[in-house]
Amino acid sequence: MNRGIFKCTVGDFNIKDAFEAVDLLFEREYSAVSCAEKGDRWVVEILHDREISESEIRRALGAYDFSKIEHEKVKETNWLQKCFENFKPITVGDFYIYGPHLRTSPVPTDKIAVEIAAATAFGTGEHPTTNRCLIACQTFFDEKRHKSVLDIGCGSCILSIALAKLGAKNIRACDCDEEAVRISQKNVEINRVAHRIKIFCNSACEFNCRKYDFIVSNILAEPLVSMKKEIVNSLAEKALLILSGFTTDDDSVLRAYSETGLRLKFRYDYRGWTTLVLEK
Q1: pTM, 2 dp
Q2: pLDDT digits (tens, 9 = 90+) for 106-136
Q3: Which of 23, 71, 104, 215 is the most exposed place for a label (fewest CB within 10 A)?
Q4: Sheet (strand 197-201) strand order
Q5: What angle do CA 22, 26, 28 make, to 5 degrees?
């Protein structure tokens, strides 16, 4: 039996297809899957404890247009630590987002510090949807008006943490993935906002006839459309709803929520992805 770490590099993709390919491959439980920009195109890298065949990749990504598949055996290393080291701090609006390996480095005095480990839950601020959700939260959240907040599909809890640091005091964050919930709890404790955020795991989310002044959900188009009724019914009057996780050419989410009577307040189109700000 072969031992070691094998890397498979697949390219070239456009940015939208690269992130979608990562999502598809992540479901197959490889050791690690990531994408990176190479010039004006993107590549997807897969790490696993066995060699990955070309036919396996083509079965998984047959719907996408890519031009090459390269294989190599690499030296064993601590890949999670390597991921930490490669996760450089980024600035999104007023937020300064960094990994735990940079905890002792100075934070810009004019920025809001958010520490997020680039680990096993989605959300480090790099993806275009997370980026624009953070901008939307900073722009539209009002501490005086928005007393109750719901974060659906919280991932790493980055959006809830950002909202807590903007002044939100009563936040409920949920995810159907137990690992995401575990990572979220760790992240809110690191950022010292655990007293403001209640995190729970629930595959159907948890609405319980509550009314929220501010709801954010950065997931996918299909679950957003399927949960339309529950989400809209959970909005208080004059509440704001931020939705993201779908590509710019997909109008299914905007169409579905417009049919409920919600008003489009603002729309962000960024690097092939869309974030909507709606008002009840």
Answers
A1: 0.74
A2: 888 999 999 987 554 456 677 899 999 999 9
A3: 104
A4: 197-201, 171-175, 149-152, 212-218, 235-247, 273-279, 263-270
A5: 130
Backbone Cα Rg of the chain: 19
CA distance 183 to 178: 9
Supply 241's token pair: 């709803």
The DSSP string of 167-203 is T---EEEEES-HHHHHHHHHHHHHTT-TTTEEEEE-T
Instruction: Specify the amino acid at residue 127.
Output: H
Strand, helix or coil at 260?
Answer: coil
3-state secondary structure of 229: helix
Cα separation values, 160 from 17, 130, 141, 172, 198, Å: 27, 12, 12, 8, 10
Q: How far apart are CA 38 and CA 35, in angstroms?
A: 10
- Tokens representing residue 70 in the block: 């390269």
Element (H, E) at 213: strand 212-218
Distance, C-alpha 44 to centroid of its chain: 18
Q: What is the pLDDT of residue 96?
A: 94
What pLDDT shows up at residue 119?
A: 56
Q: What is the pLDDT of residues 30-46, one digit of tens each?
A: 878 888 888 778 889 88
Please, which pLDDT band fits residue 261 given cuts at 50, 70 and 90?
very high
